[in-house]
Structures are given as structure tokens and as C-alpha cells.
């Protein structure tokens, strides 16, 4: 009986030791997973700051997008204004060229109008010579077809030019010129020449009225400013 008590006592000691060890191990694990109030507060502040920074970044990103869109609109506006100014300058240059304020050089066409070399007997000679109406029609067709500048026998025309004929002589801005009349026009020959030669156009009309017409494609035509011409004449 005494041996049995000793064994039982030993078993109870082992069991007690195991229970005590298990309890201590459980407490240590709980302590490992338990966060102190101070640590929790630090973690909360860090998360709050992170959220604030993310919100600030999002707001700054939206502001950046807005500024970029504003800059794009300004660039587009400047581009449009630049194009408008360029068009205005181009128009001014065309007007100055048209009124004869600036010299002009370029390709174009040269049209020569001559009186008919043959006048049938008994016919009115006036029906076989060049008149101002013939020159008018030719000049109008050239301008309509896009000519930038026109001259008659070297006399450059302006918006105020005038011409009239007196027999075989045509007066251009006070200067008299006999036939043949050489009309030069600066412009695109690929446009000017077809417009003159169109069926029923000005060339056909001139030929029908017994005027001898010669059309030439010129790679370069030069015309001086009208102001210089007036100063040299004076």
C-alpha cells in the first residue's frame, strides 16, 4: 500500500507540473499577441497620417490635371491667335501687292494682243484692231483666276488704274502705248492658262473679234512698286 501512495503522489506531481507549464505557456502566448495601449495609439496615428497623405495626394493630382487642362486650352488659344495673325499678315501682303506698294517677282503668263494683219477690203478697220474692251476683258479674267499683279507693256496696274483707247493707241494711267499690247500677270500658270483657254472664254472671244492672241508661260516676271515708278516719272 505504501508503494501505491508513492506512485500516485508522483503521478499527481507530474500532472500538476504539466498543468502549470501549460498555463504559463498560454499566458506567454497571450502576452505576445496583446498590444499595449501606447502601441495601438502609435499605430492609429501612423494609419491616420497615411490616410491624410493619400487624400492630399489625390487632391494635388486633381489640381495638376486641372492645371494641365488649363495650359492645354491656353496653348490652343495661342495657336489659333498665331494662325489669325499669320493670315492677317498674309492678307496685308496680298493687298500691298495688289495696290502696287511692293515689288513682286514670280512665275506667270504673258499674253500679247495684236491687231489683225489682214483686213478684208471694204471692212471697217476698227473691227480688226485691239480696243480697251478687249484688254479689260483679259485683265478681269486674269484677276478672277488669281493673278497677284498685272502690267500692260511694262506699266504695272493698281486698283486706281484707268485705260482708254484712241484709235490704235491705248492710254494706261496717262501713258500711251501702241499695239502690240503685252499683258503680263504673276500667278500660277497652271490655273491662269486653262482659265484663259476655256471653251467660249476670253481667248475664244478675242479670236472671234479678229484679235491675234499669243499666250506664253513665263517662269519669272518682275514688277517694280508703283511708288518708285511714279517718283522716277516725276
UniProtKB/TrEMBL annotation:
Family, as annotated: Belongs to the UPF0749 family.
Protein name: DUF881 domain-containing protein
UniProt xrefs under InterPro entries: DUF881 (IPR010273)
Entry-linked PANTHER family: UPF0749 PROTEIN RV1825 (PTHR37313), UPF0749 PROTEIN YLXX (PTHR37313:SF2)
Domain of life the protein comes from: Bacteria
Pfam families hit by this protein: DUF881
Organism from which the protein derives: Metabacillus sediminilitoris
